[in-house]
Amino acid sequence: MKKNFTLIELLVVIAIIAILASMLLPALTAAKNKAKTIQCRNNIKQYGMGLIFYTDDYSDWAPGRDRLLGSTAWKGTALPYLLASKPDAAKTYGDTYLGYINWTYSITKMKGIMLCPNRGDQPLLAMPFMSNHRITDSRWDICNKDIVRGVFKMGSVKKPSSLAWLNESNGRGDNNQGIPFVHNNLCNIFFIDGHCSATPRTNYLGVTILSGNYGIGYNYGEIWNYWPFNGDSE
Q: Which string of DSSP letters, residue by residue, matches 214-234?
C-alpha cells in the first residue's frame, strides 16, 4: 500500500531543506564575491599591462598622473596615454585608439575592463581605477620624472615591487571621493613591477573617510603617505 507523507513529515523535510540552504548560502555568497574580486583584479591588471606596453614604446617614459588634462574629470588617470594620438599622447584623448588596452572610451558608462564588478557600471566621467598621484608629484623623490607632463622613468623606480601604480577609485577624478575597499575590506592594487595584490583597509585606520558616489572611500591626500603608495617597503 502506498503511504502518503503526513503534514509533520512534510514540514520536517521542508525544515531540513531550509537548514541546508541557510548553510550553503553564505558559502555561495562568499564564492560570488571572490569571483568579483578576481575579475576586478584581472581588469586592473589589463589596464596596468597597457601602461607597461606603452612605456616600452616610449623609451621607458611611463604615464603617471596626467596633468595636461586640466580640470577635467579624468585628470587623475593615466588612461589618455593609452587612447590618444601620437606623438604627444598626454594632450588629448583624440580619436585614435592605440590598442594598448582592449577598451574603447564610452560617453555613457564605463564598461569592460574599466569596471569593478562589485560596483557595477560607472557613469559618465567616472574613474574606476586611478594612478598613484605621488609618483609624479614634485614633493616626493620616488623616481626620475617630468612633473609638467606627468610621466616618469619606469627604470628609475627604486622599489618597483613595493610601489602602487594603479588603485581602485571611488568616483570622479575632479573631486576627492576616496579609495574604496569593497572586496571584503580589500582594495586591488597594480604595482610598477607588473604584479597585482590587495591591500587591507586596516592599514589605513587613521585616514579620513569620505562619502562618494559608490559608498565610502579613504581620502586620497592622506592615503598617499602610506604603503604601497609612498615608495617604501611594506
A: TEEEE-HHHHTTSTTTSS---
Asked whether the beta carbons of 84 and 97 are under 8 A apart, the reply is: no
Radius of gyration of the chain, Cα coordinates, nearest whole angstrom = 22
Task: Render pLDDT for 10-55 as a digit per residue (tens, 0 to 9).
Answer: 788 888 888 887 777 777 777 888 888 899 999 999 889 988 888 8
Q: Residue 120 is inside which H or E element, if any?
A: none
| Winning range, highest mean pLDDT, from 70-74, 142-146, 148-152, 221-225 | 221-225
Q: Which parts of the chain are beta strand (E)?
A: 61-63, 109-110, 122-123, 126-131, 145-146, 151-153, 164-172, 186-191, 196-200, 209-212, 215-218
| Residue 94 grid coordinates | 583624440
Given a contact cutoff of 8 angstroms between Cβ atoms, the answer to whether 164 and 191 are in contact is: yes
Structure confidence at residue 132 (pLDDT): 86
Contact 177, 76 (CB under 8 A): no
Helix (H, G, I), strand (E, B) or coil at 79: helix
Compute the distance between CA of residue 9 and CA of residue 1 in angstroms, rounded to an integer: 18
